[in-house]
Amino acid sequence: MLNDDFSEIARYLNQFHRDSLLLVASALLGHATPTDTSIDKVSRTSCLIQVVAGDDQFSHEVALDITRDAGEASVSDAVRRAIFDLVRNARRLDRSGRPPTQLERIVAATESETWFDAEVRSARQLSSSIRELTFGSLAGFASLGGDEHIRIGLATDDQSRAGRAFFTVRRARPAAGEIDVWFARHPSGAVSQWAASAQPGTTARVSSPRRVFQPPPDITHLVLIGDAPGLAALARLAEEWSPEIKVTAIVAVDCTTARVAFAATPEVDVILTECGALGTVAVRWFYRAPRPPAGTYVFGAGEHHEMALLKRHLRGVGGIGRDQLAISEYWRRQS
Ligand SMILES: Cc1cc2nc3c(=O)[nH]c(=O)nc-3n(C[C@H](O)[C@H](O)[C@H](O)COP(=O)(O)OP(=O)(O)OC[C@H]3O[C@@H](n4cnc5c(N)ncnc54)[C@H](O)[C@@H]3O)c2cc1C
Q1: pLDDT at 155 over 80
Q2: Which domains does the chain have, with CATH numbers?
Q3: pLDDT mean over 42-47
Q4: Cα dist from 281 to 34, 91, 147, whole Å
Q5: 167: CA distance to ligand 1 center in Å?
Q6: Which residue of 50, 128, 297, 312 lies most exposed, with the fewest beta carbons within 10 A?
């Protein structure tokens, strides 16, 4: 039976890519300016978009062309690409000069990605949940700092999406062509299983890096929130920013793992919690003050549901500006 349920794509776009949907809505409306928009339904042939402009509400059914690229791994991939084509077309029609949307930035980064044939140089178990691998043979790797992340692929070609996932560069040594990566242990997953037993000499494909964290220069307090997969990003950002500014880290890892992560930054205020409680604990922490003061910047890297809870709270009750946070879902717990 064909799987025609693409509600997950609609949910994802509504939650994380409203700026792209507004761009598409502007193109649909022509001269009127949309005040809100969301996707109601996605099928393999069309997508139903609700657009609000002032007191008026319109419903547009837009055709999706999923036939163009036969090389796509699944129908979902083809539907995602067809929706991005809508964004591309809307951009062509846009005369407002609005900045690139988050989705446009992601796609541009993917299109300009280059791949290296890397080799594991060393492997160390840092704690019961984190294993560090050092990758070498990365001559020309242009480190971006911050939360820079790469894709690691186990297949020998660059197109296959199987056995490929994002990982953060914990440390980069461009002169030596080396990077360190922290792999969180989890029971399923091709790349994590591979990392759990990878030894020096094992090879993998490593992509060029990209980054999300771009805070304004005048931040005074950085709040880092994450779990084991997000830990490398949190540890690296803590090292880059403290002690110049106040850094608080709310992390869902065990005590030993946290000690390893923040060993070089003892001034960081570390609050420990457990996986499954991260979103709630972080939200409660923010409730201590009526709203985060100006100068606060929140970086979140963790499980999908917990990051969604955090983002809802901070954007809603917390009243924090879009330019004060970068919250990314790094993985998703299967319910
Ligand atoms: C920007 C970015 C940076 C990231 N950086 C890191 C990093 O530095 N270190 C790191 O370990 N991860 C990191 N991740 C998360 C990592 O990409 C995912 O955990 C990914 O799913 C791992 O790929 P896999 O092949 O092992 O598992 P997949 O094949 O993708 O997943 C298989 C199953 O495992 C489950 N799963 C995936 N991750 C976990 C987990 N951590 N715990 C429990 N279940 C899980 C999934 O729900 C799925 O059911 C990052 C993600 C992003 C988006």
Answers
A1: no
A2: 7-110 (3.20.180.10), 113-207 (2.40.30.10), 221-331 (3.40.50.80)
A3: 90
A4: 36, 40, 23
A5: 8
A6: 128
